[in-house]
Amino acid sequence: MEKKRITVLPHQFNNNDYFLLKFIYDENLVSIARSLGCRWVVSEQGWAIYKSRENLKALIRAFSDISIFDTSKIGIIDAEEDYGDRITAVPEAYSQLLIRKGYSEETVQVYKSLFREFIHHFKDRKLKDLKHEDLVSYIEKQVGSKKISSKSEKQLIDAINFYYTGLMKQDALRYPLVKRDKSGPSKRKVSRKDLVRMLEVTPNVKHKAIMSLLYASDLQRTQLVELSKEDVNLEKMTIHTKGGEEKKPVTLKLDEDSGKLLDQYLEVYKPQKWLFEGAKGDKYSKSSILSVIRRASYKAGLDEKIPKTKREPENETNWGS
Predict the structure, then answer these.
(1) Contact 171, 97 (CB under 8 A)
(2) N or C: where does the chain have the smaller number of CB atoms within 10 Å of the terminal CB?
(3) Does an H or E element contain 158, and which?
(4) pTM over cut 0.90
(5) Residue 219's domain spans which residues?
(6) Are residues 285 and 225 part of one domain?
(7) For the chain, counts of helices (H) and of strands (E)
(8) 148, exposed or middle or buried, with CB in 10 Å at 0-12, 13-18, 19+?
């Protein structure tokens, strides 16, 4: 697997210093960033974490093996040499068992990164001697101090359990996953008036078409990126979705406004295969769609959808998710 580059930049908010991580979207790198307590900064399109020596060490432990971790922008030429200390090694048997069990290379890297941080936390103790309460205390600390998401919490528990059940042949850790309140509802309803304001501040016709189609059809981003050019029939004003997991194919009716925007977009961009394509003709990504929505929402002044503070590390907006 080719290593992706992560660039670390300085970032400030409210007179506090942060490390800002920027990288091409990768779901596994995002999972690791979240597990460390990083927060997404919409305006900077990067992941922020408080600047401290300990946080830098944690970032190095998490990312040095699986990425090109570039700290030159924060004045550190060789971060691993200067701050890496002795990178905790994950038992080879742990990695090999993940591979034998058929886990993808990306999942192996995520589990190893999470488990490496776990080992480091208990570096002065033997893992086999840890008690159930030690493991629960560790997870509670990650949840409480780093404010990790429920998804990241589950990944962390799974990574730890894999060691104890797979290698140590012990019972799995029974840790209750608590559904924590988010900063807003999981899927925020956008009114027609809000949509009009978002379209008015968006000059790009592709972005207009994407937002209008999401609103009119109630499609999810996952479904939208899977649409091909042939799925659209502007004469009949319909879109045929192929469906997804546990979802049947459906034919959706377009309204007049979204149909017009879609027609304008097709005339200007002339996609070859996918309805919405990236610069190289590949499928448009879900993260790009999310960025389009966030940018338009902020410019339209919809403060309930995007926080007023442009540079504050913030949670994701899930419209179209």
Answers:
(1) no
(2) N
(3) helix 150-161
(4) no
(5) 192-299
(6) yes
(7) 12, 8
(8) buried
